[in-house]
Every structure is written in C-alpha cells, then in structure tokens.
Write a structure and sequence with these properties.
alpha+beta, Endonuclease, Chain A, elongated
Length: 247
Amino acid sequence: MPNERLRAALLEHGLTPVALGDEIGVDHKTVERWISLGRTPYRKHRYAVAARLAVDEAYLWPDALTREQVVAASDSEVLAIYPHRSDVPHDVWRRLFSAAERDIGVLVYSGLFLAEDAALQKILEEKARAGVRVRILLGDPASVQVAERGVDEGVDDAMAAKIRNALVLYRELRRADGAEFRYHQTVLYNSIYRGDDQLLVNTHVYGVTASRAPVWQLRKVAGGEIAAIYLDSFERVWESAVPVPCE
C-alpha cells in the first residue's frame, strides 16, 4: 500500500526520491519503494527521513514502533516537573524562547506574568524581528470561557482585566513584524508555552491560580507522543482563534 504521507511530505519540501536518497545515503530506488510499495525503512533511515522532513517518525510509519517503544520514547520527553509555575527557574523560560529558531507560541488566558517580564518580552521582540514566528493566543476578555475561569480562580472580573493589561504591555511586540496575536474562546485545561519542539505546560486546576499549579517541561523526542499532543492542541486553538483588533 503506498505511503501517501511520505509522498506528501516530500512534495511539501520540494524533494524528489533521488534528492532524499542522496541526502541520507540511500539508493533512490529504495526511497521509491518506501513510497510506492509502503516499505518500512530501517530505524536509522526512519530517523534520518523524519528529521529531514521535520515530521514525527510515527506519522510517516505509524506501525513501525511497538507500544513499548512509544512509551519509552514518551517517557524521555519529560525533562522536569515543577510543583508550581512560580518554581520554574527564570533561566528555563529564557532558554525556551531564546533557543527557538522557527516558532514561538503562547497559549494562555492572560499570561500576565510573561507580559510583565521585560527581559522575556525583549527576547520575544528580538526573535520576531529576526524572522521567528511568534504567536500569542489570549483569551477573549468578553467570552464566557474567560468569565468562568475568573470564577474558577476566585478573581471574577479581574481575569478579563488581566488580559487587557497584558495587551497594553505587549504594545511594542504587537508592532514587530513576525508577531501575531489572536483571541481564543476555548476552555483551557493547560497553558502552553512553546519554543520549536520544547514546551512548558502549565496545568489548570479548579480553585487554584495558574502560578500555583504544576508545570511539565517537555522536549519532543522521535517516536514520543506527549509533546505532540500539546503541539497539536496549540495548532487547533490557533486555527479557531481570531486576530486581536488593532489599537
């Protein structure tokens, strides 16, 4: 059965079987068999292809890994767990954004602590101006979801006010080419902060403010599934969100 995912990924990257074979050291006829006959490459070649095409190995060859291998890879994705967001060292936040080369994403209701941090804001601005895609998703302050989260945290209308305050603080970043801001109307079970394939996931707990809730530090590993779940979730919210109105 043909591997249409591999075929599509090659087309998206403008690669031919010959070009891919040359890059990873495999005969182009072998690459063509991977595509037309659905053959599964050796593991080292699967890694090489997945890395070159910037996709997960399990996406191209979903049956190649056993569940035991997937579980082991997923376990390796968890770098650290912090009992509270306030316990995450500032240097971890700095490295998350400063190391990004392609994509920075923030999915929050307000994330006011980030907007108030001048050093982190400077990194976001520099990255946006350098060509990194910076995407900020804030809760729509007029939405039911934001109102309900305000009640959950015991701050009521202050949640919507925090979002508006964050937007004011983001004034310079909003003017930078490469920075995009959108409002979402989603029930968030986690806040997500990403720098390429690295993430900080701040869980949401009823009756607890985000600063007091646990944080998972993740880094995507080939064959793992935990980081991909949160990366995909970010993209789904982004697609359903609307641009923040201009000032």
